[in-house]
Specification:
Blueprint: H1 5-8, E1 12-16, H2 23-36, H3 43-61, E2 67-74, E3 77-84, E4 94-95, E5 101-102, H4 104-110, E6 115-117, E7 122-129
Helix pairs in contact: 2-3
Length: 130
């Protein structure tokens, strides 16, 4: 079932438990919305960004504070806001044994708008546009 133009302007909300098995749920949710709004070229980048953001938030949540994901239209693009209301500092850059950068720094390389703020927990935001 497709959404009406007015419904497409409403934010999409998802809340997941801070456990690794829910990374895929958030990733598919974000990818589906991105595709539904016609950002076909950004689907894989968004799915990667959401996977890395949720994984980073899981590390500080102490498996008790849910992670929320809000997606909404913003101008000619989409805005993604991921929040964990648990205080903590996330590790933004991880280098694997082969020297490949992973984590939020990897996402920043493909989505420069990615930002992390530490007010009332941790919020990770990014945007995609045509």
């Amino acid at each position: 079932m497709s959404r009406s133009p007015a419904e497409l302007l409403q934010p999409y909300l998802l809340e997941v438990p801070p456990r690794p098995e829910f990374v895929t749920t958030a990733r598919l949710f974000a990818g589906t919305i991105t595709r539904q709004h016609g950002f076909h070229d950004a689907v894989d980048d968004v799915k990667l960004a959401v996977s890395e953001a949720v994984s980073a938030l899981i590390t500080i949540s102490e498996h008790s504070t849910p992670i929320s994901l809000e997606v909404k239209r913003k101008g000619d693009g989409l805005s993604f806001v991921l929040t964990c209301n648990h205080a903590g500092v996330i590790i933004e850059s991880v280098t694997d044994p082969e020297g490949t950068v992973r984590g939020l720094d990897l996402v920043r390389a493909i989505i420069p708008s990615l930002d992390v703020t530490y007010e009332q927990g941790v919020t990770i935001t990014f945007e995609v546009s045509h």
